[in-house]
Amino acid sequence: MAEATEHDENEHISPEAAFSLLGNETRIGIIRALWQADAHQVSFSKLRDHADVADSGQFNYHLGRLVGTFVKRKEGMYELTYAGRRIIGAILDGTYTKRTEIDPFGIGASCFACGSSLEASYEGDRFVVRCQDCEETFLRFAFPPGVLEGRDHDELAETAGYWMRAQLSFTVNGICPNCAGVISHSITTEPEHHDHEVGLEYDCERCKHHATSTVALHLSYHPAVIAFHDDHGIDLGEELWDSYLWSDDEHTTVLSADPWRISLTIMLADEALELVVDEDLNVVERHRT
Ligand SMILES: [Zn+2]
Ligand SMILES: [Zn+2]
C-alpha cells in the first residue's frame, strides 16, 4: 500500500484552500481518528482502521490532502499538527457548531452600583453578567458554547471568570486573543460601558478585535496588585465577581490628562496600595501604606 505523499512543509496555503480541505466527511473522520487514537502517533494501517474508510484508495487520497496542513507524517507515522489540534478544539468547544441559551442565574455577587444580586446568562455565544435591578451590564464576552456541557451554574460562573481573565491577560500583554496579532490600548474619557471617568479600549491592528476594560481590571495583572491581594488572603480569580474591579470610579482618580497620570487605590483591611500609571499604563509610582 502506497502511503500518502507529503506537501512541502514550508509551503504556504491560502485560507480558502485550507478551509476547503475540511469540507469533506472522510477528512474530518481522519482528523477525529487521529485525535481519538490511543497514541500520539499512529501508523498508516491503524489510522485506516480507526477512520473506518472501506475504500483504501479513497482513504489514501484524503489523508494525502491533509498531510502538510492538518496532519504531519514523520517516519511513516501520522499525527495532528497544531492546526489539526486547533480544528479538534474548535469542534469540541462548539464555536462553529453549537448555539445555546441559558436563562439568568444568580452568581452570588452584588452590583457595585445598587447592591442587588448579579445575574449571569448565556445568550447565543456570549456570557453576560448584569445586575437584575439597575440593568447595569458588567460584562459581555464571547465564550465557546462547549464550555456549558457538564458544568452546573456555579462551575459555569467560575469557569467564565477564569476564561475572561485569561483572555484579558493576553489583551493586557498586547496579544490579540482572537488572532494572536498585536493589540494596542488607549485611554478614553468616554467609556462605552459604565459611567466611569476614564476607561480603556483595546484594538487589534490585524483582525479588528475590540475590547474594553477599566484601569482597575488592567492593573489587576500587575505583580504589586497580585501580591497585595495575596498578602490579604485573596485570589482575585476566585473572588472575581465580588471584587472591587467593577467599581472603577471609587478607586481610580485622574491626576492629570496631559500627560496622563491615573491613580488606582485599593483598600484591603487597613492597608492601601496606590499605583499611578502613565499613558502607556506603566506604573510610575507606587505607595503601600
Ligand atoms: Zn445594580
Ligand atoms: Zn486580532
Task: Provide a short characterization of the protein structure.
This protein is an alpha+beta fold. It is about 30% helix and about 30% strand.
Folded structure, characterized:
There is one protein chain. The protein has 289 residues and is of the alpha+beta class. Among the domains are: 79 residues, Orthogonal Bundle (Arc Repressor Mutant, subunit A), CATH 1.10.10; 117 residues, no CATH class. Helix content is 30%, strand content 29%. It is built from nine helices and 14 strands. Strands 4-5-6-7 form a four-stranded antiparallel beta sheet, covered by helices on one side. A four-stranded antiparallel beta sheet has the order 11-12-13-14. α2 crosses α3. The longest helix has 20 residues. The termini are far apart. The mean pLDDT is 89. The site of one zinc ion has 8 residues, from loops.
Summarize the topology.
Blueprint: H1 15-21, H2 25-36, E1 42-43, H3 44-51, H4 56-66, E2 71-74, E3 77-80, H5 82-93, E4 100-110, E5 117-124, E6 126-131, E7 137-142, H6 153-172, E8 183-188, E9 199-204, E10 210-213, H7 215-219, H8 223-231, H9 248-251, E11 252-257, E12 260-268, E13 271-277, E14 283-288
Antiparallel strand pairs: 1-3, 2-3, 4-5, 5-6, 6-7, 8-9, 9-10, 11-12, 12-13, 13-14
Helix pairs in contact: 2-3
